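User: Study the shape:
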Amino acid sequence: MVEPRVEEIAEKGESFVALTASQAARLQDLRFCRVSPTADPGIWRVTDVTRIGVVAIDDVRLIVRPKTPLRSLIFMASYSGLQAEVDDASFAFEADQDLPAALASALIKGVGEATSRGLIKGYVSIEETGTVIRGRWDIARQLKVRPGIPVPVELTYDDYTEDVPENRIIKAALRALVRLEQLPRRVVDKLGPLLGLFSETSDLHATGPVMLPAETRLNAHYQPALRLARWILEATSWAHTEGASSGSAFLLNVAKVYEDFVGRVLQATLHPEGFDVDLQVSDWRLDTEGKIRMRPDIVISQHGRVVAVADTKYKVWGESDGSPPNADVYQALAYAVTAGVREVHLLYVSGDVEPRRYEIAATGTTVVAHALDVSGEPEELVTRVKRLRATLVPAMALPPDVGVDR
């Protein structure tokens, strides 16, 4: 078997890769980057990368390297808000340099910890047809399916079973990894035994984004594994809908991982203080007729009033003395005007850059740009987001006339 030729693509900036015209067209069709020809025949420029991971096209293996350290990325992907402690044992995958292998190794470890006491169980509503009454006789369904015929009987009952959404999601992610062509054998060999644990669990049937079950005391130990499973399913299913063959692509939207992590840390930090933190609010409209939709990433409220709005930007900012991109500032202003708040915050990915304030005289609004460093130990990542509380929400109690009802 011929070893694939490996080409690397940087998440930031531009990369030059050797491809045939057909391969370049197929890469462009995946719609996560811009592919353009250069003056050199067979060499293509790749820019505007929006996802990271691995793509296999014929005999070429394209690896998109993240600008975020893998260690930090895996932690952000698994963060549930219920993790009281973070220990280095969670990062036994660090020998894996590719994102798919790192996520797979982290999921294997997470599933092992989640199922160490057995699979989670719960009550599931079951509909079945039988000759012996069990549970409740569903008369409406009986009349619809077989009007006037008393036997067999349409029944509905609750069963205490392992066939619950939590197990279905994890099983689906494990199966997606088994089909992935990019994983090393030592990782694949660990997936089979884990899948065997879920033999009594039915397959997940989801046509859209995977919605995780609400976090409860009973499923808290499943949360890190569930969150990794969701990102794995997103990375595999998205690529396939864009035309990649099954198992040939693994492309993760790191911007969503970053947004989700920041939002959940703020939820865990501010909720005990009496604040509500809503993520990806979808019912905002800029115009009076409601035609211009807005979807702010993070909306912080108290007593039903909006007190702060923030938008995460998976962009490096602060490397020079330049201001944030104009489009980001315009978007922030629209959020501030709609919410009726005096400040709105842009949360960029970058290194140690002090927050910068931009006062907009015409609207009386201040746009505050922050740069969050996502390198270092997991505890450091959480602490840096928690520190945003001081600027996002004033320490003093809010008077009744601050903010706007939503």
In short: Confidence is low (pLDDT under 50) at residues 84-92, 396-406. The longest helix spans residues 223-241.
